Hints:
Elements: H1 4-17, H2 28-39, E1 44-48, E2 54-58, E3 67-72, E4 77-85, E5 88-94, E6 106-110, E7 116-125, E8 132-138, E9 150-153, E10 161-163, E11 166-169, H3 175-188, E12 197-202, H4 210-218, E13 226-234, E14 246-248, H5 258-274, E15 281-283, H6 291-297, E16 301-309, H7 318-322, E17 333-336, H8 337-353, H9 362-373
Parallel strand pairs: 3-12, 3-13, 13-16, 14-15
Antiparallel strand pairs: 1-2, 2-12, 4-5, 4-9, 5-8, 6-7, 6-9, 7-8, 10-11, 11-17, 14-16
Amino acid sequence: MTSTATRRRHEKWLQEITVIPTAAGREQRVMAWIRRWVTARKNLTMTADQAGNLLIHQRSRSGKVPIWITAHLDHPAFVVTEIIDDRHLKMEFRGGVHDPYFEEAPLEIFDSRNRVIRGKITHLDAKATPFKTVTVKTTASTMPLVLGDIGRWRFPGSLPRTRGDRFHTHACDDLAAVAAALATLDQLRGVRGMGHVSLLLTRAEEIGFIGTLAACADRTPPLNARLLCLENSRSFPESPIGGGPILRVGDRVTVFDPQLTNRIAEVLRAYEVEDPSFTWQRKLMPGGACEATAFSIYGWQSTCLCLPLGNYHNMGDIDGVAAGHRPAKVRPETISLRDYHGLITMLHAICTGLDRNDIPPYRARLDQLLKDRAWVLDQPTQHLQD
């Protein structure tokens, strides 16, 4: 049972990380937070691969087959590409959001000193390549800004905020997963026999898994690693927020590694017996694609664990807007705090349980079933006559 103090600490990291501005290729603010976090823990090390993806390892290693927990550091956001004049900018949007949500949407843009300049979208070029572009009118001088500065949707009120079990913030996808990954490693670091657990925090996922593809090309993870790819996935009625973290068996593109996914399900069912209060879901989650697909295609044993997400990519009432029943409004993303803590518990149970000999594989159960009941097949049968 996780202590109240530990849960509060994990929620503090969630609150801090999910409000940090980030964009594909412009993840440096989140990276700086993580660097400080790792530096404070002497039994952890952090390096980067050739693409700038972050690798966090424990100094004390174990000889077990590696487990790598992955999450991505970016969120759909805007990047300054042209300063037109003292009150107008052009920005490209790196991520996937439907066109109606851009209409006169309010933005906040951050300079290198984290000063905020507010603005509003006045024009969308949805056909621009490689990314949609917008023209933004600002309420203050654009002089402090430079090319490459980032912007994001601006919401009324202060964030993050919690209402009951619901946590509302700028970017759960995928920064809530980053917080959960760090919390899990914080629990496991220094625990005897757990030195084979590492983190891989990737860049530019929102524009086509670019950091992940670079990691595959460079063979950043060892080829025998078991990859637990974390995501925040759009919630549907059959995968409700608050129903528990999700073992995601596939996405809209592929089905993940069946051997690893099935083994995780066996571990979680065994953990349910040990802790009946633990709840989880096993779902396809076809609302998007995730890094587990990319890793699987390139030969790694990978699967996905995710948090059910509300206001996916900050799009409020996606179905209502698509049907023409609601105006398109950007909204804070939202998750369940119970699900967030449950994901940390799930990761801990998986990392400590994957290699347990006392959790038999499902194949063993099937073999025993045949052994116990094959006698039924030896009984005479009466054939129907034509």
